Amino acid sequence: MKVAMVSPYDYGRPGGVGEHVRHLSSELRSRGMEVRILAPSGGTRREKVEGLIPLGRPIPVPANGSIARISLSFHLSRRIREVLAREAFDVVHIHEPLMPALPVDVLRLNQTSVAIGTFHAYARQNLGYYYGRPILRRQFKRLRACIAVSEPARTFVARYFPADYTVIPNGIDPLCFRPDAPPAPGISHPTRRTILFLGRLEERKGLATLLDAYQLLRRVRADCQLVVVGDGGLRRGYERRVEEEGIPDVHFAGFVPEADKPGYFTAADIYCAPNTGKESFGVILLEAMASGTPVVATAIDGFRQVVTEGTQGLLVPPGDGGAMATALGFLLDHPATRVEMGQSGRKSAEGYAWPLVADRVIGVYQSALMARSHTEVNSVVQHTAAEIG
Question: Among 165, 239, 260, 351, which residue's CB has the most CB atoms within a 10 Å radius?
Answer without folding.
Answer: 165
